[in-house]
Amino acid sequence: MVDEINFLDLVSLSSITPNLVVEKFGGKINSSFFDGSNILGSLRLKGLVDFTANFPGQSVITVTDAGKQLLSDAEEKAKTPFDAVDFAILTQLQSGKRSYVDLGGAVNLRPIDLALHLYKMGKQQYIIYEIKNGNVDIMLTEKGLMQAKTGMPAPQPQANQPAGSAPAAGVDQQVAMPPMPPPPPAPNVQVVQSATPGQEQQATNQQDRVLAEIEEKVRKERKKRQLMMIVLACVAVIIIVIVLLFTRIV
């Protein structure tokens, strides 16, 4: 069940404040009562939240230990450096993908892993996101757009390196040395260069076809899982409403 936790679950969970009640959850995440109930039912099925009927008062939402652990893991992930997976997600966002479902299919990540990376990128201001009508839209910030255009950032030098050590001296020598002249071209360089673009294009086309097939299969599987979760959430909401109505009648 942990593998099925997605970015919408994580964002919705992070929106829950102390003493928030079931009846006001939809408004808290900028969604209708029905959409909010579906999300809340999904969170409960995944063991992230719980709530009890309190009459004549309202039902307070409580975050379970599993939900608190997920939020803690997300905060720890947000402190890690920008990596190649983050850059791959930025590239897909730049190409026009805005939903976490499409992003997950494009980069072929588990929903929980994608959720943690997106949460991290939001904390580091590469993206912004907004829940609306039971779904979450994801957009690039200016920082994210510039990073997607410039490529992966250069690796940072190791901190606290002892002065005078061999690695440090090697770096200093490389900086001080003048650039080496380029080697003379070999006689057959032109022939190799003229053949390389065609081979690269053929390999690229083949890779694109394989990626397209994988993306299509993953998208279909995601849709099936999403439909199943919606059905389960609706069933949970119906059960909750019936229990509430029955308790009121009694």
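That was protein one. Protein two is written in the same sequence-then-structure order:
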Amino acid sequence: MYQFQQSSSAQTKQYAEGSFQRVGVKLQGRLMLSNREEFDCLVDEMSPGDAVVQCDVAPRNGERIIAYLDHVGRIEGTVARITEGSFVLQLTAPERKREKLAAQLTWIANKHELGLPEDRRHDRLQPRRTRTTLALEDGSIQPCRLLDLSLSGAAVDVESRPPLGTAILLGSIRGRVVRHFQEGVAIEFNRIQTRESLAEFL
């Protein structure tokens, strides 16, 4: 089982230098640039000291960023390095926040299937209508079969699996692909749904 080391003063410096070991995650969120513009983002890797962030807009080196991530909450920091399609965010946080973040990341790292039906934050629902469509950002529409459904996401059987992080429409509900599996993809909805908003499937 993965486990971060406990924090100490020396380790706090290690966090600040961004040398603490990152873990692979797929955390969706929304970030705000220093000019207060907001964009969707996806964090691929994270440690208590930094995070690798994917976003459609590239910030400036040294720019201050605030982000809100699923399962983690608010983080903030400065852009330390920019690469093609992503950037490294050096986190700014007191020791107590870093310790909490280390515990959160330990929990996430030890979950075998983040965002999957068996690891949902909400109970499964029994869909009555399983035939639906998956619409992609490029306008293409794929028929798919609903395998699993909850207020926070779904699993669908689809022939062509969109890349991780792809924004989609499942029927009329917006979400993002968070995992691939043999039959298709797992989707996390952009917001928690109600039974009424899922009526098209129930």
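Confidence is low (pLDDT under 50) at residues 5-18, 112-120. Keep this in mind for the problem set.
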